[in-house]
């Protein structure tokens, strides 16, 4: 079985990808520093996939730790690099924390496996597009000046990977996946998103508000140039997103694939904040309490992805709609309220 290193494999997207890797016949090897995840997710994965995956708790920013990892796991076919700090607001307050973590970990990993033929999948973000001029946005749209140090790390990490491939010195093949807005949870409700503190993202705030952990939801802006005035995003179910990583590994493994490529991971369809709130109410039967507030600094008005290239080259498209995104996120919120993991 081909071994795949999954950094950040106990996190939200990482844990769902571990499940899909096993479903596809791969052997995931998880690396995580537990800075934004729980060890208990390993047990949850055990329940879903029937065994505990290999796990290394280590800090990828420490070069010696990563080299030790490469010695312990020399035979890997792929790396899916999720591990990164991702809170936009925190990155504005603590830029060095973000630059240190997100750059050191990428560079240490690349160095550790530099001489090996490894297929490398990088977690990037639609944040690189800023507010695109044309919607849906395609992969060849210009990368815009970053709105936050977090967004900047995604842009620069993409550049680091492209420069490394252009240099021709390594045996890597690299695919960057530009995520739109991942939401939802596994159908088992055994894994899902575990935000630290007050959720900054819309869907975890909705589910926590619905269960009574938070007050009413604030809709950030109702005066955007959109049909209902609230901002539009391309929400994608995390299980669909996870499956795209398996598709990316398969594409990179082909002899015909060389070098570097990047793909949008979205549904190709935008939903406004008010539409998301409505979809939650419709699919769960739970009424939400919300109010309209001012715009949030740094937010773009509307963005959704063109997924033609992903469909053609990755042979992947989403299967789960906004209703399943909402109902699965809600099922997870209720599960975690009954079964706290920490
Ligand atoms: C979605 C929409 C908000 C909360 C961010 C990062 C991005 C990516 C994912 C990840 C926006 C509105 C939100 C609330 C609201 N990074 N909203 N009330 O901002 O599109 O993307 O997370 O690792 O890089 O920028 O996602 O979920 O925060 O917001 O009205 O309480 O919901 O204004 O329009 P966003 P989000």
Write up this protein.
The structure is a single chain. This protein starts with a strand and ends with a helix. It is an alpha/beta fold and 342 residues long. β5 (119-125), α6 (149-167) and β6 (173-179) form a beta-alpha-beta unit. It has eleven helices and 13 strands. It is 40% helix and 17% strand. The strands form four sheets. Strands 3-2-1-4-5-6-11 form a seven-stranded parallel sheet, with helices on both faces. The chain is globular, with a radius of gyration of 19 Å. It has a domain at 3-183 and 236-266: Rossmann fold (3-Layer(aba) Sandwich). The structure holds UDP-4-deoxy-4-formamido-beta-L-arabinopyranose.
Tell me briefly what this model is.
40% of the residues lie in helices and 17% in strands. It is α/β, with parallel strands linked by helices.
Task: Walk across the major sheet and give the strand order.
Answer: 3-2-1-4-5-6-11
Strand residue content: 15-25%
- Distance between the ends: 33 Å
Helix/strand/pairing class, anyone? alpha/beta
Task: Provide keyphrases for this structure.
342 residues, alpha/beta, two-stranded parallel sheet, 13 strands, globular, binds UDP-4-deoxy-4-formamido-beta-L-arabinopyranose, UDP-glucose 4-epimerase, NAD(P)-bd_dom_sf
Task: Give me the secondary-structure topology.
Blueprint: E1 3-7, H1 12-23, E2 27-32, H2 40-49, E3 54-57, H3 63-72, E4 78-81, H4 88-93, H5 95-112, E5 119-125, H6 149-167, E6 173-179, E7 181-183, H7 202-211, E8 217-220, E9 232-233, E10 235-237, H8 238-253, E11 260-265, E12 271-272, H9 273-284, E13 290-293, H10 308-314, H11 322-338
Parallel strand pairs: 1-2, 1-4, 2-3, 4-5, 5-6, 6-11, 7-10, 8-13
Antiparallel strand pairs: 9-12
Helix pairs in contact: 1-2, 1-8, 3-5, 5-6, 7-11, 9-11
Bound molecules: UDP-4-deoxy-4-formamido-beta-L-arabinopyranose.
